[in-house]
Design a protein that fits this description.
- The structure is a homotetramer.
- The first copy, chain A, has helices at 3-6, 19-28, 50-53, 64-67, 89-101, 156-172, 195-198, 209-221, 261-269, 298-301, 333-350, 358-371, and strands spanning 9-14, 34-41, 72-73, 82-85, 105-108, 149-152, 174-183, 227-234, 241-249, 254-255, 258-259, 287-289, 310-318, 322-329.
- By secondary structure, chain A is an alpha/beta fold.
- Chain A has 2 domains: 3-152 and 335-371, 3-Layer(aba) Sandwich (Rossmann fold); 156-330, Dihydrodipicolinate Reductase, domain 2.
- In chain A, helix 2 (19-28) crosses helix 11 and helix 11 crosses helix 12.
- Chains B and D meet through helix 7 of B and loops of D.
């Protein structure tokens, strides 16, 4: 037995052959705390080695350790209490509930349970204490130590938006928000959008997106009446959602009768979160301000902070709402698998996953302690 | 001498080798009123046959009649009183003034003179009577009949925006407008944007664009204090600007306590303009409402009305300003060469170009009459 | 009843909601000989109006006459003897046979029957007399007049290749051919290739393509032993297959000890076919030679001859086989629906479809006569 | 003074603001042997900090150490004997000669001197001993120790081709080669190809490319009469040239009367080069064989071996020449800056750069020794 691996927390990835599932596998390959114990897939995939079941579309090579794993069905009894869900919208809801009933801690990237009142919807740098919501969940299990739970990662666009809004919200207050998104193809998964629909084209519609963004943003910021308009477009970009944001702040920073752009830039750049300090997937700075006049761009900026930071630029006055800027988020890293991974790290560090995860929690405490 | 051509109005195209210049040449090849008498170009191009001077990038073949024309320098003395300007921003201003001084009627697609107080900035279906502004121009010339003038075509995005706003403005009144554009590569001309900057990428900045759109829109609609925010993005699309628009109307159409989407759709679709009736380049309906759930899309909708109509879709409530919708305009047809051509047709039909254009004016009157 | 339509030949389109099916509908909308009498689709589509069953992806608007037609199942009993098949590979074979058994004349774009010994595989300008093969088909039916038949259109790349090879084959003889294709996304239909697989990427594999091209080329040219190597790539282009071709000719045209490029260019450009003279869909010249130094390009040249001509360029010496050049074919027009339409026109003009098509045949004769 | 940096070899990058220059800066930022002592640029750039002079287009952030360097003119007297040239074709020739005359060791990515008889053209894994050619160069300088020299890196496509051919050449002998390239946009530099020319398009022509590939391949393999046909296409891909290769081998590996594909795959995969063992930029395996049925693809495979390995796939029989396969090379890493860097490492490790480079040579020896 590999002594190194024995000190890591075993995890499973649900729906491992899809686009987000592949990202999970790729990120977990070298994770300091977690190691893959199981990969699940559809009936068609189950029983086959992962390397054969998956049509690998990542730029990194398929990790050898994952390649040989036999894909198993998505069902209770997985050899890991902590499971990451990359399941598709249609099936995620009941499957995740069943796994939580069976005692699994499900960190989900799917949308099914995000708006459930007792399910935390968390961006670790923004609302880390929302994880406590799982205490009100009523899945089966004798005591807290063996009880299952569901924690959710927001929609990819919501994550970028909320991370960009949070520093402004904390410092200046938020009245109204208008956002137009230019979303990458990877957000639709595989097969996702046909190339015929996206070559030399833009599709100004993404099913459900314009409803999810305001609903999730309100829940995360704890502002149930925040006015927020979202317009979503699909553009021919591989990875990286661009967000054109206008906001009305409660108190507008001004200098010499004009918008104090520099102060806004500093507000973004100096934003930090104690909650994620020392977590392996946390970027040094959650929000990076680009100095480029043309602003943040998918191909050039999506990998800032190893794909976990949001890049902001083109901060300027808005004649209608007051402030405008552009934000960019890597939709399959920070906006999906990477975000869920950071959420799991947060949960482990918080020790809220119960005693039978004590070994990893102790590990986490040690790591966090050494960095903190 | 070709008797057919003798009945057409001779025109010149300034800057004929560039992207917009090529569109003018392409559109004029089969124009029922106009025929190309001269094509001008830079020093490098002058003296060479057009077919050699140009790097033809249009999907239609280079019209044979234009192919053999010798490119001449852009200077007074062209064998056509009516000239179309596709000159670049840097040089258009003084060259167009010089030509107007020499008695030419310049219909310009360049930005240099658009905001001059005595220069009409016209979208024929929207503010056709603004052409009368040329009477206050003070170029050399003994009398109105031989005097030069400058008329201008707005920026490509402005045209799409103004055409989409006009029906709402007329029927419901306009308070505030927020627009985010997803603009095609052709808008930057040739060479324009490097492919390295636009493959797998979006550039959320277009120099000058966010200032031009509100300034021009205010001038065209005659609303100098209209609040308008524009955010401009360049996307990897060949032709067709997509506009994500939010508006606050003075009187919001409502039905059963919700936004009356159907009434808005009818307002768009029933919009007509008497001023352009019978003009060769005018589309049957200036604004087309798509029934497609995904809304208007560049590759699928840019050619509606032979590229001269604006397509509107996804009309829905906006939680911030009240109404949202998406509009699409073909930026090098309606938004550039085609728009300027329609403007010239309007001017001819109005007979305001003076007596020495009487022959064409009579022709125009005849044609318009027969259709009217 | 519309007297005009009564003089047209009724046709049906099988698989009308797919990519090629849409092209058929678009091309037939204004066809001078044919008119759509029925559109067929899958179980899911049957019973719904075409406008609702289809996800229209063409740049032309959906023709109003087709929009209202109710989609019917693909089965014998259609109200048109002549049917165009745009069925997918999996189901085309048996369905087309069943229709032919029931007396329908099937002009198919599918691959299922192309290599059947008694099924003609025809490019009208290249091997028009191969249509006679249908006389050896043994479908049910009392006499030739009421008997069904199957005629096939080759693979999209094969069509471009064969049209480019034919003039050389006739004049100089053909020994060996090597072709590398750069194929457009539309060739894979809808949904076809995921955009994730084709943005910032090339896929050097198209299932079955490298086998079809040589087999079909040999059958069409009647050269069963021709050495032909085909390598197929999918590239991020909407329409238009680019073919990089090297050939060894039996007699190499030389001048001053070098390849006689001019003579080759003339051989291409002067190629004509008597068989298609006057047919509505036939281009004036089947092969066009571009003067552009950069050679034929999908976006700039695919629409030559209304998408029915092949464009050739960059003719030059090949150090390995002798001659190299680049050819371009519009894969969904000439290479699919347009090619099948021309084949149907040829069949009608040849009068070989039997007596009960006499009215249309007479019409065709009249039209052809008036043009010939 | 930084003791760490004092043990590194100072280098300069000529033409540091261009596309390849940026790659050099990016790669050198963390190089274990080299450190940037100077960056040169055009007159327009000289005197400005690199961060202002450059329009940074790399996905990695601009390295802080380089950002603050003042760009200097490209002229003798640079504070580094070893210089990397990313100069453009037009000016590289005389400038590189002048620098060599002044005692600089120039490792060039430009094409100007590649075919000079006394200039080595080297792919380190393929012809490492060709570096000895510099002994016949006759630049000024008292003795070998202070004499300048020019070493060159081949064209990006040549590198990929030669690396893929070398294992076959060594084992089976090479008679004839036919290659069709699908080249990425980055190969044309910045601004390079206009996006209008490459969106929804392919350009089947790259100036000079079809002549460079055979000439350079012959020189590198030392086969002056090798028959080689190259056809070059530009495709809408950011990085990664795809090569469709057909070869005729002297002795064709066969098994059971068919091409022995497995033996060919092993020949590729087992290819190693002693000369590059332990060099920092050398990939573990120069040629990687992909197991993917669809073959190597730019977006998925360009980064194999940190962008320094060539990926090969789709090995199969060719009806014309015998063997076909597809190869992929990262054109701006292995095919440009990375390749030149590896060449410089090779030269240092060979100790052929003279005594006054002794310190680095010793360093290199140490490093190589420790790994060897």
């Amino acid at each position: 037995m590999d002594p190194r691996s024995s000190s890591k927390i075993p995890v499973a990835v649900l729906g491992a052959t899809g686009s987000v599932g592949q990202r999970f596998v790729s990120l977990l390959a070298e994770h300091p705390w977690f190691e893959i114990a199981a990969l699940t897939g559809s009936e068609r995939s189950a029983g086959r080695p992962y390397s054969e079941a998956v049509r690998w579309m990542q730029e990194d090579p398929l990790p050898p350790a994952a390649a040989g794993l036999e894909v198993v069905p998505t069902a209770p009894g997985l050899p890991a209490r902590l499971v990451f869900s990359a399941l598709g919208g249609g099936i995620a809801g009941p499957l995740e509930s069943a796994l939580a009933e069976a005692g699994h801690i499900v960190v989900s990237n799917a949308g099914s349970h995000r708006m459930d009142p007792d399910v935390p919807l968390v961006v670790p740098e923004v609302n880390p204490d929302h994880t406590a919501l799982i205490r009100s969940q009523r899945f089966a299990g004798g005591d807290a130590a063996s009880r299952g739970a569901i924690l959710t990662n927001p929609n990819c666009s919501t994550i970028g938006l909320v991370m960009a809004l949070k520093p402004l919200f904390d410092r200046f207050g938020l009245e109204r928000v208008s956002v137009v998104t230019l979303q990458a193809a990877s957000g639709a998964g595989i097969p996702g959008v046909p190339s015929m629909a996206l070559l030399d084209n833009v599709v100004p519609f993404i099913p459900g997106e314009e409803e999810k963004i305001p609903a999730e943003t309100r829940k995360i910021l704890g502002q149930p009446t925040l006015q927020l308009s979202a317009q979503a477009n699909r553009v021919p970009v591989i990875d990286g959602h661009t967000l054109c944001i206008s906001v009305e702040l409660t108190s507008m920073p001004r200098k010499d009768d004009r918008l104090d752009v520099e102060r806004l830039a500093k507000t973004f750049a100096s934003f930090r979160s104690e909650a994620v300090r020392g977590l392996p997937s946390a970027p040094v700075a959650p929000v990076v301000v680009t100095g480029r006049r043309e602003g943040p761009q998918p191909r050039l900026d999506r990998n800032r902070g190893r794909g976990m930071a949001v890049t902001v630029g083109r901060i300027r006055e808005c004649p209608v709402l007051g402030v405008r800027f552009v934000a960019l988020v890597h939709n399959t890293l920070r906006g999906a698998a990477g975000g869920a991974l950071l959420l799991a790290e947060l949960a482990v560090a918080q020790g809220i996953l119960g005693e039978d995860l004590s070994r990893p929690a102790a590990l986490a405490a040690r790591v966090v302690g050494s960095l903190g």
